[in-house]
Amino acid sequence: MGLEGLTFGLAASAVLSVASGWWALRRLVQARHLLDTPTSKIRSAAQGYAEFYGVLQEIPETVIVAPLTGTPCQWWRYRIEEYQGSGKSRSWRVVERGTSEAWLLLDDHTGQCLIDPRGALVRPATRVVWQGHQRHPRGLAKTGFFAALGLGREYRYTEERLHSGQPLYAIGEFRSSGGGRQGLDLDAAQRTVVSEWKGNFDGLLQRFDQNSDGQLDEREWARVRLAARLEAEDRHRAQSAQPARHQLSKPRESQPFVLSCAGEDELARRFYWQAAAGFVLCLAGAVAYAWLLGIKGF
């Protein structure tokens, strides 16, 4: 083996070992997050990272249709692959893919929670795969004589969906507003109001410039801050009087954001198997790296 081949082999084995080791550790941490986070009820859940079990419901006046089959659903993801290449080198290659970003509605019989699915690891129960000869199919491929002949099999389509009425496990960042649940940082709210008022400084002068000199002195600024504080309190009371609104979204930290028709035990088990496979690849990369070093004589 030449020097160039050895160098490439060392680099490849090092990358394989590091990347698979990182992946395995990540999957282990994610599995522990799933198992260690207690299941909460939407009505009484604490703010922050939370886990829920419930049933998907339709959002009123919202119509969502899967793009490949035209099936009504609550969420979809699709992939179109084309059979490309020549001879023995032919293989399926992705030519188009897409994922729904429409909000979901989870109901656990104690309350309802809107879910922003962007950035989530979604494991739906419904998954269909078929083949055809059109880039964008209108429905499932027909079966029969032409299918038996293998005609029109240049494209492979995969469509995954979530439907109303299906059970859903969800874990992510939980936030509530309205219903008197949100706290008030009065100083921060006051600064927000003052900042808004400064955006229309002429209006601010008209309201608080008592001596009409075109500027606000210290006493007038004190009145501005007091009025802003009262305005912040009024806004908080008005918001608290609104019905409670719950939302789940991707956490800012590295915690997993998962939406799945399977429960946490099945998901954690899958993560553990993936972690095990990652550690095997990590070990294989390390062994290959050591073997190549031995060949090189280090």
UniProtKB/TrEMBL annotation:
<dbReference type="InterPro" id="IPR018247">
    <property type="entry name" value="EF_Hand_1_Ca_BS"/>
</dbReference>
<protein>
    <recommendedName>
        <fullName>RING-type E3 ubiquitin transferase</fullName>
        <ecNumber>2.3.2.27</ecNumber>
    </recommendedName>
</protein>
<keyword id="KW-0812">Transmembrane</keyword>
<keyword id="KW-0863">Zinc-finger</keyword>
<keyword id="KW-0479">Metal-binding</keyword>
<feature type="transmembrane region" description="Helical">
    <location>
        <begin position="271"/>
        <end position="292"/>
    </location>
</feature>
<keyword id="KW-0472">Membrane</keyword>
<keyword id="KW-1133">Transmembrane helix</keyword>
<keyword id="KW-0833">Ubl conjugation pathway</keyword>
<feature type="domain" description="E3 Ubiquitin ligase MUL1-like">
    <location>
        <begin position="84"/>
        <end position="180"/>
    </location>
</feature>
<keyword id="KW-0808">Transferase</keyword>
<keyword id="KW-0862">Zinc</keyword>
<dbReference type="InterPro" id="IPR022170">
    <property type="entry name" value="MUL1-like"/>
</dbReference>
<dbReference type="Pfam" id="PF12483">
    <property type="entry name" value="GIDE"/>
</dbReference>
